[in-house]
Structure formats: C-alpha cells, structure tokens
UniProtKB/TrEMBL annotation:
It comes from the Bacteria. Transmembrane segments: none annotated. This is XdhC family protein. Residues 26-93 form the XdhC- CoxI domain. It holds the Pfam family XdhC_CoxI.
C-alpha cells in the first residue's frame, strides 16, 4: 500500500510533509511544479542544506527553505521558473540589499536552487 499524500495546507497533519512526494503527486495531477532546494548556507540560516520547498503554478507550496524568512521571494522566483522553464540560483543574506526586504535579518546567507520539474 502506498502512502497517501495529504492536500496542501492540511491542518490535520502531525508531521512535516514529504515535499518530494507532494511534488510528484502534483506533477502526476498535471499541475506545473517547481522545486526549491537549499544548496548552501553560512551563519545562522534556519534550514539545513537539502531542505526543500515545492511550489505549484498557482503559488501553493509545501515545505520550507528558510523558516519563513525568504519563502515569499522564493515562491515568486519559482512561479517565474515555471513560466519560462529556466532554473535559478538565488542568494539571500544580511549583506544583500534585499535582506531586510525579505526578512533574513537573523544573519548568515543562504543559496537556494530553483528548478521547474513539470
């Protein structure tokens, strides 16, 4: 028996979703999907390398790449990646001019690879 993937935003969830399983379920359902992956951190980045955020073409997402600091900016880039089919390497940090805009004021830097997978 294969595991059931709960719908995005399910309040009844007791453990974090397997975002790769969510991505696969969305892709099989014909939804355009992008995957964001933490590929490098320095300092006090809140998520480790290998953390994922999966985003569908409507902007729904599961997972986390920064504990809420940069998710909004990553979702926007993912939607653009879905639209143009190109990957992106994003970098956020306190030395970056967007640090305060996206909320990464805790210190450190984070690099996130975004790729369309549908």
């Amino acid at each position: 028996m294969s595991p059931t993937v709960p719908p995005a935003g399910s309040a009844a969830r007791t453990e974090p979703p397997d975002v790769l399983a969510v991505a696969e379920a969305w892709r099989r359902a014909g939804r355009p999907v992008a995957l964001a992956t933490v590929v490098e951190t320095w300092g006090s980045a809140p998520r480790p390398v290998g953390s994922h955020l999966v985003i569908d073409g409507d902007g729904l997402f599961e997972g986390s790449v920064s504990g809420g600091c940069v998710e909004g900016a990553v979702v926007g880039e993912a939607l653009e990646a879905i639209a143009d089919g190109r990957t992106r390497l994003l970098e956020f940090g306190v030395a970056d001019e967007t640090a305060w805009k996206v909320g990464l004021s805790c210190g450190g830097t984070i690099r996130i690879y975004v790729e369309p997978i549908s």
